[in-house]
């Protein structure tokens, strides 16, 4: 059971599912009203990818492409906050100072990206560090961290538990294809310096999130600082 405050990072892929998103809204509201306190960071998903791909075709520079992705992630945050307007803080915070002011109100804080060059995973870790939160749940587009991309390698082995140092070594050796989509080295370094434990679970299984929060049982990967 996770009774202390935690950060919830939601994959942008979640916002592509008209069936799954309403269930997340209901679960988040239920958890909040039962006393679980969290800050939420949303990814940009297919909306961000579409605009970035289109932008590249018309020669927009990388920093401005990042801003398109950030705008998409903030739109997803706005959508979620609007659905949870009875408990969520509005407007959407866009930097750490605004996050702190929003958190101080006691309402549910939901954000997207902050600035170019940062993944939303990095934003989630920065918020965790800033607020003194020691647990981050990453509801990703994959159900765990593997030794290779399981979508292309049938021999990929799931890692039930791994330290940040071990995962950084794997990232440097490039043996985990697609891990950047989960956690980039900057995000991991923030978790390491502040002693933040990360739980990677699949966003497609709502039961995984409920079980992790209410029972403390993870069927994904636990990344220790």
UniProtKB/TrEMBL annotation:
Q: Which residues form the Aspartate/glutamate/uridylate kinase domain?
A: 8-201
The GO terms describing molecular function are: ATP binding; UMP kinase activity
* Family annotation (Pfam families): AA_kinase
Q: Which SUPFAM superfamilies match?
A: Carbamate kinase-like
Please provide the Gene Ontology terms (biological process) for this protein. Answer: UDP biosynthetic process
Alphabetical keyword list? ATP-binding, Cytoplasm, Kinase, Nucleotide-binding, Pyrimidine biosynthesis, Transferase
Q: Check the record and name the InterPro entries matching this protein.
A: AceGlu_kinase-like_sf, Asp/Glu/Uridylate_kinase, Uridylate_kinase_arch/spir
Pathway this chain belongs to: Pyrimidine metabolism; CTP biosynthesis via de novo pathway; UDP from UMP (UMPK route): step 1/1
Lineage top rank: taxon: Archaea
Tell me its EC number(s), please. Answer: 2.7.4.22
Instruction: State the family it belongs to.
Output: Belongs to the UMP kinase family.
- Protein's UniProt name: UMP kinase
* Species in which this protein is naturally found: Vulcanisaeta moutnovskia (strain 768-28)
């Amino acid at each position: 059971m996770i009774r202390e405050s935690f950060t919830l990072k939601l994959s942008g892929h979640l916002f592509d599912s008209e069936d799954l998103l309403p269930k997340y809204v209901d679960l988040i509201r239920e958890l909040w009203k039962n006393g679980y306190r969290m800050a939420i960071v949303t990814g940009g998903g297919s909306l961000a990818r579409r605009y970035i791909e289109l932008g590249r075709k018309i020669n927009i520079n990388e920093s401005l492409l990042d801003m398109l992705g950030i705008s998409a992630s903030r739109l997803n945050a706005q959508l979620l906050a609007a659905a949870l307007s009875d408990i969520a803080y509005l407007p959407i915070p866009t930097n750490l100072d605004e996050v702190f002011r929003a958190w101080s109100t006691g309402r549910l804080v939901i954000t997207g990206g902050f600035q170019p060059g940062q993944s939303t995973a990095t934003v989630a870790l920065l918020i965790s560090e800033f607020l003194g939160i020691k647990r981050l749940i990453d509801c990703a587009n994959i159900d765990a961290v593997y030794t290779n991309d399981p979508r292309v390698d049938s021999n990929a082995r799931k890692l039930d538990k791994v330290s940040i140092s071990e995962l950084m070594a794997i990232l440097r050796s490039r043996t985990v294809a697609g891990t950047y989509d989960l956690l980039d080295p900057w995000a991991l370094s923030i978790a390491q310096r502040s002693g933040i434990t990360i739980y990677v679970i699949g966003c497609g299984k709502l039961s995984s999130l409920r079980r992790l929060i209410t029972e403390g049982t993870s069927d994904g990967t636990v990344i220790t600082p």
